[in-house]
Predict the 3D structure of the following.
Amino acid sequence: MTASRTRRIIDEAGVDSVLLAAEQHARAQSYRVVITVVDRAGNVLALRRTPGAQVASSVVAVDKARTAAIFVRPSRDIERQVSSGRLGALALRGAAALTGGIPLRADGEVVGAIGTSGETPDQDESVSLAGAAVSFTTTEVPALTYETARRVAETVGTVATGRGVAPAVAVVDAEGNLVYLWRPDAAQVASVGVATDKARTAAIYRRPSKDFEGQAAGGRPSALHLARAVPLQGGMPLLVDGHVVGGVGVSGASSADEDQELAVLGSEAPSLHNAATYIPQATYIPKQKVDEQFQTGGLLLETPGYKLDAGRRTGPGEVELHDRQTDIMHVIQGRAAVVAGENKHTLSEGDVLVIPNGVPHQFVDVTGPFLYFVVKVQS
């Protein structure tokens, strides 16, 4: 398989170089500190303590480093905002408004961060700056792109729609952070969080989330204590060239088994094998299903880029306005008058009406049943 892009990560030798430079500076000044290096998502890679460092600094140093990594700036910037009166910065998720965290950059790309705690804010920061200033080695690994994540989700969504189910599909990166969410109108609200939890579990533990459900059900309830994991099937890691680049999670299909089956399909999506040559699959909807849907009206197909409705009207409707959606109507049966913007259009069998996003429209006169296909294209 080929990756659509790569990203740099700081390697083991690089971490050692950063820590050594920081520690040498701290010892030269007789600072009693804890120094830690984290990856770009704030996960600890290594930690060192100089003699006499206070116990609490082990946690605070990690908080500072994580802040610098995930906000891509020195943690001093967050503390400065709070000290200047912007108290809302205290609510930033994952942030610690404490000076002493510095991002680690390789060719302009943030690959992690270093944090120091134990002395004054300025002294802590000086140790981190000494570590960040040294040259360090990195390596390149495959990385998940937004486009690939979208295609994975769309692969699952197309199959799910064809089956008549409406689960939420979440795709996360290798650190478990959400990249793309596919949420059809009929998906239950709870499925959004559950799908993301499943995807994160598969990504950060590098195995199907089903493994943990098997452990919990098989006599190991302590699997419930695994950090940031959910023991529910339906999450699969996404691999490129043997590297885990993320995870896909599915929740809300007809059963847990179908969640798992759809997640497996997502993990095998062509976009992962070769994003450059990925070709979307055609969707076939048999006449019987189309006829059945026209009896009540409703959704025939939903993808992240467009929807296909089997429209049915028997009377006038409310005014509609779509900010980011263009409606393309093709009349199958009946007659109706539609006011779109300042114009009124009388539609009958075979007519097509295109209503761009931002144009208010309303059915004002309908000879029912009025049947029409409408493709809703996201702008």
Summary: DSSP finds ten helices and 16 strands in the chain. Confidence is low (pLDDT under 50) at residues 275-279.
